[in-house]
Amino acid sequence: MYLTQRCNYTCLLLCSLVSFTSHSETTFSGGFWFNYNINQQTHDSHFGDEALVIYLDKQHEEQTPWNYSAEFRIGPGGFSDTENNTTGSNYVLHKAWISYSKNDQHTFILGKSQLPFGWKTGNFWPGDMFLAAYGDQMDVGLKYVGRYDSINVAAAFYPRDDWRKDSTDSTDDNRHWGSRKTYHKLDTWVGDITWTLQSSEKIGVSVQKGKLQESITGRDEKDGEHHAYTLYYDYTFDEFTFKVSYIKGVRHLPDAYFSLTGLPESIRNQRYNSELSYQYDKWTFLIDVTLAKSNTVGGLDKMAIAYAPGVRYNYGGGWIYLEYLNQNAWFDRDMKINDGNFAAWYLTLDYYW
């Protein structure tokens, strides 16, 4: 009975996605991945982190403005936070949304979708690195996407960051927004503007602002707040793609939480991010470099650095990835930068049908 209650949002949305456009063709597809990694410091190795992925998408039809998409992951490699997600287990909806488009220039998206905030890293297993909390955010709400000549705009409102009231899981970029027992974000407004200077060159700015609700006192006080902005640039020349961004983030923790933990009331930091990739036939070579500086009272007093070079090969049914991650710090659930060295190699294979 408890499991059924925990999954009600998942089942309801999946059924709605199929039924509300029952007259149209629905495409079911899937895939899986698994990973082998070696910790460079301890020489410990691990094989597994497997995940089965199921996709449900509506086939594109010009005569209807409606569309939908969902991605369901099962397994320990699904990049979900099992202690704080909707299901409490290793299966989760990474995304699930319904959209309505008008004239191919204006689209409204309802459901769990990606926040329009800057760019995302192109690697697989090293993940968002020091884009932490502002990388691959997947929240529940309403988003508008519009195209105006050389300008693309997006505006969104997300009442929740996950399906349940007490869950907090952005799936890929998780463990950076509190927890079920401390606080979570809600009522987040997001805006993004991208200018296409030429077909291969873009600049953009994104902002987001929302509340933090505590889960400690039982009163669910919304006295915390978060806001951030990013400036970014994207340039493609021949087979090369180069991206840079600057992010500044501020988090004012809920009173009950910082009083209980002794943490500073405000967590502040800034990040400098870059990515360079090169495409050669079926091979992609890339490197992500992210730096972070704490502006928090009593925070880490050195520049945090993380870099992740890697290569992937498209063998036809999927990709094989060889990646390396090295970092001298890490971000916790409060967006606080902590000292700590880590280095590891990752070998990953995925397959899709």
Whole-number total of structural domains: 1
CATH class: Mainly Beta
Count every helix, treating DSSP H or I runs of 4 or more residues as helices: 3
Q: What is the second-level CATH architecture?
A: Beta Barrel
Poorly predicted spans? 1-15, 17-23
What would the CATH topology be?
Porin
Measured between the Cα atoms of the first and last residue, the distance is 34 Å
List how many beta strands DSSP finds: 16
How confident is the prediction overall: mean pLDDT? Answer: 91
Residue share in helix: under 10%
Order of helices and strands: HHEEEEEEEEEEEHEEEEE
Binned strand content: over 45%
Broad structural category: mainly beta
Q: What's the CATH H-level superfamily name?
A: Porin
Approximate shape: globular
How is this structure best described in words?
The model is unreliable at 1-15 and 17-23 (pLDDT under 50). The chain has three helices and 16 strands. With 353 residues, the chain is mainly beta. A 16-stranded antiparallel β-barrel has the order 1-2-3-4-5-6-7-8-9-10-11-12-13-14-15-16. The chain is globular. The chain starts with a helix and ends with a strand. The chain has helices spanning 2-6, 8-19, 255-261, and strands at residues 26-39, 45-58, 66-74, 91-102, 106-114, 138-148, 151-160, 183-198, 201-214, 224-237, 240-252, 266-280, 283-294, 304-314, 319-331, 337-352. Helices cover 7% and strands 58% of the residues. It has one domain: Porin, CATH 2.40.160.10. Residues 1-24 form the signal peptide.
